[in-house]
Write a structure and sequence with these properties.
Rossmann fold; 2 domains; single chain; 345 residues; six-stranded parallel β-sheet; alpha/beta
């Protein structure tokens, strides 16, 4: 197959990591790949290390030469603005495209978005929740559901030992995400406040940065069981060093960092929202709380801490659950869509 992937994000977050994961798998399978990417993003350096042709575009109006997709079977769009790039390329050069939608926000039915979704040969949502939102906005579509896949990070044993020494004799709970309002760091801090006197052995390491950090630091003032560690580039070591991961988001498209934690062997407590229940079956592959329920989070943390057998059960259930999320499986699902689109032309 000859595929052109498009991701025009200027930063590098979970969506870009997932796009890269699929590209790596397809390259290993022998696909001929073109990648259109924003030169401002670290994503460019990552794809340049792979056997791909890289085309730079900092806007969806850029890089619309026929030669970019001349030999491609289709374009695969991975980020919001990129759908307009694919639409323009189709209108100018007749190349079909499919869209993967990763966020669970309601779709804004602007006139250009309406055209872009109607012209797509296929639309994919990462979760049941995203698929439902696509169908609500565009009843004429029949979107597919293909989830993200867990990324495996390297582990540095020296770093693991350093982290464990830093939080020695503590049950280490990590919350890793961009520090944005919807990621629920305020819920984690409220749970820490509830546990500070009830359970002195629990310590929270908040891994991330963002525009909400200053407000969150103010919220956590006076707490001795919370450490703001900033954004980390060594998540494999943190996953290996921690005892538990929490992710009490208010909204979540799917939760790739949850997949990464589960894949690393951590038990996870997360909120029952968005695509998270696609990953976590309550008391089977993790624990679920209601969004915003800090006391429920605190109680769940104490339950997991006090019950090693429960931790083992949840981790075993998570490994079973992850079989349908592995990149080998999700890449095969995408291949079937590619083939359907190609055969329909």
């Amino acid at each position: 197959m000859k595929i052109c992937h498009v991701n025009l994000a200027s930063g590098y977050h979970g969506g870009e990591n997932q796009t890269l994961q699929l590209i790596k798998q397809q390259a290993a399978l022998g696909y001929e790949l073109t990648v259109v990417a924003n030169p401002k993003s670290p994503f460019v350096a990552a794809v340049r290390a792979l056997p791909c042709r890289v085309v730079l575009a900092n806007h969806y109006f850029a890089a619309h030469a026929a030669s970019v997709t001349a030999d491609c079977d289709l374009v695969h769009v991975h980020e919001g603005r990129a759908i307009y790039w694919a639409l323009i390329q189709k209108l100018r050069h007749g190349v079909p495209y499919i869209v993967t939608r990763r966020i669970d926000n309601p779709l804004k039915k602007k006139w250009l978005a309406n055209i872009a979704y109607r012209k797509a040969s296929a639309v994919v949502g990462l979760s049941r929740d995203i698929v439902a939102k696509i169908q609500h906005a565009y009843p004429q579509l029949s979107p597919y559901k293909i989830p993200s896949s867990p990324v495996t990070y390297p582990i540095d044993e020296t770093e693991v030992n350093d982290i464990r020494s830093r939080f020695k004799h503590r049950f280490l709970v990590i919350h890793a995400a961009n520090m944005l309002q919807h990621k629920g760091f305020d819920v984690t801090i409220a749970a820490a406040k509830a546990l500070q006197e009830q359970n002195a052995n629990v310590h929270f390491a908040l891994l991330g940065d963002g525009k909400a950090r200053e407000q969150l630091e103010t919220l956590a003032a006076g707490l001795t069981n919370v450490t703001f560690c900033g954004k980390q580039s060594n998540m494999g070591s943190w996953f290996a060093a921690a005892d538990l991961q929490v992710h009490p988001s208010y909204t979540e498209g799917l939760g790739s960092v949850i997949l990464e934690g589960l894949n690393s062997g951590l038990p996870v407590i997360a909120s029952r929202t968005g695509g998270i229940p696609d990953i976590i079956d309550d008391h089977v592959s993790g624990l679920l709380i209601e969004p915003g329920d800090s006391q429920g989070l605190a109680t769940a943390i104490m339950t997991v801490q006090a019950n090693p057998q429960l931790r083992e059960t949840l981790c075993a259930g998570a490994q079973q659950k992850l079989t349908s999320f592995r990149i080998e499986h999700t890449a095969e699902l995408y291949q079937k869509i590619y083939q359907e689109v190609k055969s329909s032309l």
